[in-house]
């Protein structure tokens, strides 16, 4: 997720990486970088930026700025640009460096590489070529938003960025709307209002959280139903980096006629007990209530 590093906390007191950092073993290192506050960088990430043979980044200026903040020297190394538009051209050069026994540190714009970022093919091809691929964990906008959202975190689904076209976006929503999990998405600040309007067409009461500018000076978390949050967003949209989260889908009570029809169908080839168990499980109902209804239907027959 592309975000600028907020260096207000570190400009006066840069924290330099140790020049004595041990040279890493050959392999590809996927470095998580701050999503806002530059001080969220890990010590291990600083050591690798300081000691890796080859540096690669989705945005070379962002990585160079981050290294400057923390006093990490380039020492003659060049930062290779690797992003969606040049990945096919740059991958062979990085794979060749790995083949020659180099250690390569790759950083996305901000956050954890491969989470809505272009490093997937690089990591896949490196692994398929037999090179070691290492994670250097750290900040993640998706997980930071989940942590502060107040929504259930035992099961969650990350769905990336919505399509910009209206029809494709509605199909995208339909693909996950019924999933029994907290859903996490990234969205453009100018399109977030439209996304919530689409959600409100079918589930205006779905629990919704918008996290804006996480870990930065103007961090904001907006909570409510989809319709409530929609009303709080100005017509021109929001500013900054946005993460949108949706709670589990609303539980809709099944129509009794639908339950009766399903029981009648199953009891043609199943016992009353088994049919009641299947229907109760399928609709999320109390088994004893469904069993009582099944007995009533059987008696009428």
TrEMBL record:
It is an enzyme of class 2 (transferase). Residues 28-229 form the Tetrapyrrole methylase domain. Its EC number is 2.1.1.198. It holds the Pfam family TP_methylase. Its main location: cytoplasm. One of its GO terms (molecular function) is rRNA (cytosine-2'-O-)-methyltransferase activity. It is found in: Cytoplasm. CDD domains: RsmI (cd11648). The keyword rRNA processing applies. GO terms for cellular component: cytoplasm. InterPro entries: 4pyrrol_Mease, 4pyrrol_Methylase_sf, 4pyrrole_Mease_sub1, 4pyrrole_Mease_sub2, rRNA_ssu_MeTfrase_I, RsmI_HTH. It catalyses: cytidine(1402) in 16S rRNA + S-adenosyl-L-methionine = 2'-O-methylcytidine(1402) in 16S rRNA + S-adenosyl-L-homocysteine + H(+). The keyword rRNA processing applies. Residues 254-298 form the RsmI HTH domain. It comes from the Bacteria. Keywords: Cytoplasm, Methyltransferase, rRNA processing, S-adenosyl-L-methionine, Transferase. Catalyzes the 2'-O-methylation of the ribose of cytidine 1402 (C1402) in 16S rRNA. Belongs to the methyltransferase superfamily. RsmI family. PANTHER family: RIBOSOMAL RNA SMALL SUBUNIT METHYLTRANSFERASE I (PTHR46111). This is Ribosomal RNA small subunit methyltransferase I. It comes from Paracoccus sulfuroxidans. The gene is rsmI.
